[in-house]
Every structure is written in C-alpha cells, then in structure tokens.
Amino acid sequence: MSKNFHDVLEIKKILPHRYPMLLIDRILELDVESEKPRLVALKNVTVNEEFFNGHFPDFPVMPGVLIVEAMAQAGAYLMIKKANLDTDKYTVLFASIENAKFRKPVVPGDQIIFEIEGVNIKRSMGKIKGVAKVDGEVVCEAVLMAALRKQ
Questions:
Q1: pLDDT tens track for 17-42
Q2: Residue 10 — φ and ψ, nearest 5°?
Q3: Stretch 96-124: mean pLDDT, rounded?
Q4: Which CATH number fits the domain that encloses residue 109?
Q5: Is residue 53 part of a domain?
Q6: Per-residue model confidence as pLDDT tens digits over 36-87
Q7: Which structural domain range is residue 62 located in?
Q8: Disulfide check for 28: which of 40, 63, 120, 142 has CB 3.0–4.6 Å away?
Q9: 3-state secondary structure the chain
Q10: How many domains is the chain built from?
C-alpha cells in the first residue's frame, strides 16, 4: 500500500479534469495490489467554490451531484492506477450511479474524505463503492460504474 500522498499536481497528471471541475485535492492512500483495491482521497471545501454563488447564496451547501462527481474522480484515479492505463490514450467515463444516498449537507469549511473500494476493476470497466465522510460521519455513499473510452 502506498502511504505517500499524491498531491494535486500528481492528480492532474492522471485525471483530465481542471478547475472548476477537478474536485479532489489529494490522494492520502492508494493500494492497487490487494484483491480489493482501495483509495482514500480528500477534498477541501472552501467558501470560494464557484457553485456556492448559486447553491445557495444564503445557505451554502455543496451540491450532491458534485460530491458524487468527486467520488467518481477518486474512483477513476484508482481504476487508472490499478489497470496501469496510458492516460494519453484512454479516458475513464461515468457509466452508472447506483444506490446514491445523501446523509448530511456539506458546507464551506468541511473536509471530505472519500473512501473508495474497487468492487470489480477490469481493463475496460470498473465498479467501485464509495463513501464520503466529514469529521468521521458519512455524508454520501454510492456504487459507481465507469468505462474506458479510447481517445
């Protein structure tokens, strides 16, 4: 298991997302060798996020769809590392979202920890289970599928 974190510069080498859509700031743990590959990532939620201008100006709440997107980005990172993909030739795209549940709102100042587990990762498809936590409490969970697309 890799204990050395991967910073945003390393993340940008792997994922094609850029501001304002890059939604993970750091990879804290990465294990692609186990039978159940695993990744732990974090997102610092700041009041300066563009989406807070409209969601909602008087009660800023991070949109649930962006929490799931951040979870999917962490899952894509895990899938790319597990399959040792050439990111110049392939892109990982969302295929499905199952059993998404939102437990608590995420607000400015929160730090989201994403715990991602590979359920079934193959070279062309991947299924992951994700849990998002703030201060140790689950704020969101979902099962996500992704597919590879040749560029």
A1: 999 999 999 999 999 999 999 999 99
A2: -70, -40
A3: 96
A4: 3.10.129.10
A5: yes
A6: 999 999 999 999 999 999 999 999 999 999 999 999 999 999 999 998 888 8
A7: 8-150
A8: 40
A9: CECCCECHHHHHHHCCCCCCCCCCCEEEEEECCCCCCEEEEEEECCCCCHHHHCCCCCCCCCCHHHHHHHHHHHHHHHHHHHHCCCCCCEEEEEEEEEEEEECCCCCCCCEEEEEEEEEEECCCEEEEEEEEEECCEEEEEEEEEEEEEEC
A10: 1
C-alpha angle with apex 87: 129 to 40, nearest 5 degrees? Answer: 30
Residue for token pair 């990465």: 30
| pTM score, whole prediction | 0.95
User: Could you list the active site residues?
Assistant: 55
Residue 3 lies in a domain: no
Q: Is 29 domain-assigned?
A: yes
